[in-house]
Each structure stands twice: as structure tokens, then as C-alpha cells.
Amino acid sequence: MECTVRWTGLSGMTFVAETGSGHAVTMDGAPDGGGRNLAPRPMEMVLLGTGGCTAYDVVLILRKSKQDIRGCEVTLTSERADKEPKVFTKIHFHFTVTGRNLKPNLVERAINLSHEKYCSASIMLEKTAAITHSFEIVDDLAELPPSE
Which of 16, 26, 29, 112 can bridge 33 by disulfide, Cβ–Cβ 3.0-4.6 Å? Predict the structure, then answer.
């Protein structure tokens, strides 16, 4: 895996990150740190990447468990250290999993497997942060559109 991060110019604190898979993401700093608040902060990117990593795992595990999953959302809330380095000290993941007749024990199992075995990002962050999670299941009563 490879990426390049490039500062966009002499004024401001905007950076463009280019991934090895060919995608670009803009990051910026807070106005009090020289940024212009045009894009997410780098540490927000760490948090959202972790959310993507674990949500991916949960969906994949529930599909393999033959669950009728139709949606997965994870909200992450965090706290950081007061002094440098301002590492994450607490991160809470709240999953909202939507589907039909989802079994709570399988949803919980998928979340636990992600955090304990598969999600590299949350396993790394666990070195400095207390990781907790919760979940809710929303039963999706809507019919799926017919396949064409």
C-alpha cells in the first residue's frame, strides 16, 4: 500500500493525498492553525478510515452469515489527549444495522470479530484508545425492488 501527501502551496495548510489505487483526498487544518477549514482534518481522516474499515468487515461478516443486511452505519465519537501528541484516548463506535430478521447475536459477533481480528485500523488505535461499541438493529420492512 502506498500514498503520497502533497502540500498545495505556500499559504494555508491544505494537502492533497493520492492513494496507490488512484484516488485523491483533500485535507485541511483549522483556521487557528493556518488552515482554511476547506476539508477534513488529518485526524478526522484517521477516524473515518477506521469507521470504513470496521463497517466493511461487519457487512462482509453478516453477508457470509446469511443475514439479510440492507444497511450499515457507524458513528464514531472520540476523545483526544490534551497534550502533544494528541492521540485518541477514547473511541466509541455505534452501529446502526438495517435488515430483515437480523439476529442480534450475529450482529454482535460481526462487530466483535471486526474489532478483535479483522479491522487493522481499530486494532492499531486500541494501543492508545479505549475502544467501546454499541449497536442497534433496524428492521427493514420495505420491499427490495424486483431484479431486472
Answer: 29
What span, in angstroms and rounded, lies between the C-alpha atoms of 20 and 9?
A: 22
Q: What is the CATH number of the domain that holds 54?
A: 3.30.300.20
* Per-residue pLDDT tens digits for 96-140: 999 999 999 999 999 999 999 999 999 999 999 999 999 999 998
22 conformational bin, left if phi > 0, alpha if psi -120 to 50, beta if neither: left
Whether 46 and 28 share a structural domain: no
**What is the pLDDT at residue 146?**
60
- d(C-alpha 139, C-alpha 98), whole Å: 6
pTM of the model: 0.89
Separation of alpha carbons 33 and 44, rounded Å? 15
Cα–Cα distance between 22 and 17 in angstroms, integer?
A: 10
Rounded distance between C-alpha atoms, residue 76 and residue 88, angstroms: 12
122 and 56 housed in the same domain: yes
